[in-house]
Amino acid sequence: MTPQNRTNTPNPALNERARIHLGLDLSAAGARRFSGHLPVPAPVGALNAERLNDLVRTAERGTLDLVAISDDFRLQPETIGLLRGRLDAAVITSRLGRITDRLGLVATISPESNEPGHVATALQTISRNSGGRAGWQVDGSTPDRLVQAVTRQVSSIAPTVVSVRNHAHLERAGRLADVVRIGAHTLEDAREQRRIVRTAALEAGRDADDVLVLVDLFAVTGPDRASAEARLDLLDAFEGTEVVAAHSGSIIQVGTPLDLADLIEEWHAAGAVDGFVVTPSSLVADVTGLVDGVVPALRAKGLFRDSYPGATLRETLGLASSVRSLTGSGR
Questions:
Q1: Does the entry feature the keyword Flavoprotein, yes or no (predicted)?
Q2: DSSP letter string over 114-178?
Q3: pLDDT at 331
Q4: Where are the alpha helices (DSSP H) in 204-302?
Q5: Cα–Cα–Cα angle for 47, 25, 328, nearest 5°?
Q6: Looking at the domain covering 19-33+42-215+303-317, what would its CATH class be?
Q7: Model-level pTM?
Q8: Distance between CA atoms of 158 and 250, rounded to whole angstroms?
Q9: Residue 108: beta bridge partners?
Q10: Which residues in the chain show pLDDT less than 50?
Q11: 285 φ, ψ (degrees, to nearest 5)
Q12: CA distances (Å), 290 to each of 254, 283, 285, in order?
């Protein structure tokens, strides 16, 4: 591990409140079953442990805020015996904590499928292995009492990320979350969802700036738009279905890294978002495009950091170091 992220000094001209937050969602990159009609048993360059290591190291090189991994993420497409491995995301992020230095590691672990105490223990392990860079992601429909049962034990070491796909859950997320992931297709919709979240946070006695709203984005990048569109067609042909249909809750961005940087800047400048969580359509092309194309473009405009501001995920996200007692309906 190189020490460059430890020694770089933050850009003093960068306004902390104006900083854009960027995350990478690798959930869809995990192993899965493949249709029998496909000409090969797995995609070229299918994900394995070493490639996963390379991806998260690339994300850290770009000083991204976090990498998110879902609770059904696997490096192999089949289960072993009777083991379902519901804590796979926790195991993987815990291991990634040992090979990274500053990148936030967010694991989706359901307190409905696992005892809240077990979830808290898993997050404490990730935090210990990563030096305080653990994050916990949960679905917006999860009952408040279960979310609170976990956050009461780990909120100081593992920020809570609530993923919302139903507008009815936005107020709940504003009360409970440190980070809210939303699906929005228009700038106006994103801005309204962010307003609802921040209002709910204020009504719960919290500082609205202590709740970040990140929009999910599915990226297909290329050296020019025609190349990106051609790659999307190739992905559709390979999967045997429209790839974008599986990401209908996200913004679909097809174009160059500079096109993506322009979209990120526009939405952030409009006050619609605090940042984005990018799901790559291609592990190498889109992750590299994000780190080596989008990030430098945003840095050149003073909109993104060139080093990490601290050692923990809370510091990277710019969240208060002391955590308020979160209130909820108890449903």
A1: yes
A2: S-HHHHHHHHHHHHHHHTS-EEEEEETTS-HHHHHHHHHHHTTTS-EEEEE-SGGGHHHHHHH-S
A3: 43
A4: 225-239, 257-269, 283-289, 295-300
A5: 140
A6: alpha beta
A7: 0.84
A8: 25
A9: 137
A10: 1-15, 30-46, 76-86, 322-331
A11: -60, -45
A12: 13, 11, 9
Give me the residue label for tokens 């999967």: 239
The shares of helix, strand and coil residues in the chain, as percent rounded to the nearest 5, are 45, 15, 40
93 is written with which tokens? 């992020």
Which are the contacts of 44, defined by CB distance < 8 A and separation ≥ 6? none
pLDDT at 309: 94
CB-CB contact of 71 with 86 (8 Å) = yes
pLDDT tens digits, 151-176: 999 989 999 999 998 889 999 999 99
Cβ contacts of 161 within 8 Å, gap of 6 or more: 68, 106, 135, 136, 137, 138, 177, 178, 179, 180, 181
| pLDDT tens profile 182-202 | 999 999 999 999 999 999 999
Query: Considering only CA atoms, which of 154, 151, 153, 131 is closest in space to residue 143?
Result: 151
Q: Please, how many CA atoms are within 13 Å of residue 107, restricted to the half-sphere of its CB? A: 32
DSSP letter at 23? E
Residue with tokens 């979160």: 326
With CA atoms as reference, report the closest residue to 298 among 59, 9, 18.
Answer: 18
* First vs last C-alpha separation in the chain: 45
Q: What is the DSSP letter of 241?
A: S
